[in-house]
Amino acid sequence: MRVRLKGDAICTLLLLVALCSLLYSQLEHLVPVGNKEPTQKKPSGTSKIFSDARASWRLMPAEATVPRPPVTPTIRRTEAANKKVQTTTAPPLTDSAFNFKRYLLNKDNRNFNILINQPKKCRKIPGGPFLLIAIKSVVEDFDRREIVRKTWGREGLVNGEQIQRVFLLGTPKNRTVLATWETLVHQESQAYRDILLWDFMDTFFNLTLKEIHFLNWAAEFCHNVKFIFKGDADVFVNVENIVDFLERHDPTEDLFVGDIIYNARPIRVQKSKYYIPETMYGLSIYPAYAGGGGFLLSSRTMRKLSRACREVELFPIDDVFLGMCLQRINLKPVLHEGFKTFGIVKPSAAPHLQTFDPCFYKDLMVVHSLKVAEIWLMWNLLHSPHLSCTQKKQVKKPFQWKKKAQPTTQASPLG
Ligand SMILES: *[C@@H]1O[C@H](CO)[C@@H](O)[C@H](O)[C@H]1NC(C)=O
Ligand SMILES: *[C@@H]1O[C@H](CO)[C@@H](O)[C@H](O)[C@H]1NC(C)=O
Q: 2.60.40, 3.90.550, 3.90.1690, 3.30.450: which CATH number matches 109-340?
């Protein structure tokens, strides 16, 4: 798929201005200037700025000091994942923060209680929901959940198919935070009935626990669902396209679709956040797995994976762990070009031009690494009655879902 540069010039310009002002307003809170006191405690009420700023402050020094290892497919993945981490889970401050020995020792401790459940989420829908949207989030990110609820994560009918939604949470790493947020999370759950909270610490390396607990939850409480989309909160999802795609599939057959990464090598550079020692994973290549952002699976595959994952040893990188479960049930994940894990390739001279062409998003399923405001903006642009992408459709063949993806950008970094 080729990126369309020749967009509506005026529209793009307006968007650019809007984006600049957005970025500017964000920067104001990030950069310690003049009378602003960055060392001061941030008021807990401003959840949006608080969580974004904290994540950025943490990420920046790490990125600046860690030397870049030679470019391999896994490095690409790391960079994309860094962005993901920036907005969802705070990465460990130092590499020593992750203690492999302790991880290996605690590996069998993998069953945690559910603190907030939504047992009727699927049961209350006669015949079951068509699609369950499950979004990884962290307790602190109230603003992100709010924007997802109001945009692509809406519950209700899309093309006549019932969509339901849950957010997947663990307990905050910082227990002081938990004390203040606990009431809020319970209230949030009362208000929206879309919170699943488990009693394990919500850290980057515990995302595998989230994966296991979600699959088990789905198998127990949502067995009547037809399909599941599982993704991050910092993605833009074109649910209409996903429904359109899924309507041509059978939920009683196996299906696992996403931005599949093949032949990724474990990173053996100790300084990397994704460093995996050979004692933990001895093979030179990971099984095929879905890159961050999101993936789709059928009801049948969900049940099979939920069983298979119980037999796979915990692995600290959740995407790879799920790849191991897939391998165990002998299911080949399917690459779909509608999933853009790495975000859209941007020309350095105009970084936001294509990203904010709604006509481009129209053809996609999942785009990764978006800010809260960007998600809101894109959703509104896409659902604007004034949106007209017909000019492009004449130049290019109308978009069609292909069974097999053509060799695209995915092929080059791996080749
Ligand atoms: C936990 O959060 C509280 C309140 O936000 C903060 O004062 C404290 O420094 C945090 N502790 C750690 C270990 O981050
Ligand atoms: C995962 O969560 C458990 C339970 O809260 C905690 O004991 C453990 O330290 C966490 N592991 C990591 C790697 O964060």
A: 3.90.550
